[in-house]
Amino acid sequence: TDLVAPLGLDRWQQADCWPGAVVDGIAHYPSTPPGPLRSPIDGCRHGELLPASVVEVRAAVGCASVAFEAWRNVPAPRRGELVRRIGDAVRARKRALAQLITLETGKIASEAEGEVQEWIDVCDYATGLSRQLHGLTIVSERAQHRLLEQWHPLGVIGVISAFNFPVAVWAWNAMLALVCGNAVVWKPSEKTPLTALAATALVLDVLHDFDDAPAGMVQLAQGDATVGALLAADTHVALVSATGSVGMGRTVARSVAARLGRSLLELGGNNAAIVTPSADLELAARAIVFAAAGTCGQRCTSLRRLFVHEDVAEKLQEKLVTAYQHLSVGDPRLPATLVGPLIDEAALNHMQAALMRAEHEGGHVLIGGGQVRAGGNVPGGGHYVRPALLAMPEQTDIVHQETFAPLLYLMRYTRLDDAIALNNAVSQGLSSAIFTTDLREAGAFIGPAGSDCGLANVNVGTSGAEIGGAFGGEKNTGGGRESGSDAWKNYMRRATNTLNDGNALPLAQGVRFG
Ligand code: NAD
User: Fold this and answer.
1) 148, 347, 353, 496: most buried by Cβ count inside 10 Å?
2) DSSP alpha helices (H): ranges in 29-146?
3) What is the ipTM of this complex?
4) Which residues form a coiled coil (predicted)?
5) pLDDT value for 65
């Protein structure tokens, strides 16, 4: 309630233009049974989620389709101006948005603010991009002919997002999609609907005062997997960008492929780092602790596997154990806290089950893993754990799985080739890192026979990517790329045009006809 006014949600309460009524900052849809919303911080109930009905999802896509037909004709730099203004509005509400992210995800304040900063950064990036949506001119084999390659707006973009980045993932997609001339329908995680509501309200505020923006360009369809499945199956959605677990990606990909639509998948990771004998161990330890324990291990890029050369394993292990001892676990709203709660009880159960299984497979806990009971800086009603570091004899079955919790498996290696092979041996392919001061080792890791992940870093942890690069991963991570580089091409369609400037009509490949 304290955030309703700072986030501008009061303007949208009871507003006719909202899809479904908004009461007390919460979207109410009339169709399906409500579910309680509880903060992972203390389990307090802060609202109810009433998912969109089939009719409402169709209406959202329908409105977006109509809006697209007007928006695609607005010059791209003018579309960039809209996104620039969105960026300014986000700057003005950064703190309040970050507080809401903390309330819904349990992220510490600094990380929540960093997530909002990503939205701001991607606005700046997309604004510049709006003047750079370039194609090609290509020479023709025929006299007085030439080929053009143009990029045109694609249509309605459906965005399905995960709980752990409740605003950044949508912003990466939506800001680029908007400058590319598309309309967007967002199905946020059912665990973080308030952040989605606040983000959408902010965009609607900006759209309201922007003359060229057709109504209905930005839509929100709240709900769980059922609503996501409706979006995926809708033939009017040109591209479905889905971020979440591998299981979700398989289901969505099947549904989109069945109607020959396009999907962009950003799925689970099982990220590894290699620490070689030449590594700066102090730097490596700091990077490893942030990557493995930051966000309570709930990033797609969180570090889960660590391969350390046998010569430095003892020393690094000592450093890590000491650092883990000093990690302050507790209420993410307190400035001293570094590790907040897990998202819910299911996440706690998964972590405990993975720990038991790892021990059964020959591993032993070096530090952490236990639940932190309420008291002091730890509120009751949340699921707080001490980040765990385990020594594993080898890369066993459990190590092959992504457990979305602060669990780091430490394994020793002798030959770098073997460590790289182990890095690549899992089914996911999102992020990876090597810590070394040896140019050849670094080169081998980022070379064609090195890490098979979409992100391969040198002396930088696996998490915390910048928006300027293309973000995404290979294999079961889904193959999608978002954010920087040429990821914008996902949100456009390519047209090849052959132009004849002459009076003759030569046919390609020298074909004669008549
Ligand atoms: P999840 O798969 O449970 O849910 C993600 C989203 O998909 C939610 O909005 C959910 O409602 C929707 N969904 C689930 N099943 C669906 C279905 N059958 N059809 C349509 N929609 C469906 O994931 P989560 O628990 O919210 O997030 C954690 C997972 O997301 C982890 O595996 C993490 O690695 C991954 N993730 C990946 C990236 C990336 O960029 N690669 C980023 C963030 C999170």
Assistant:
1) 347
2) 54-71, 76-92, 94-105, 109-129
3) 0.98
4) none
5) 97
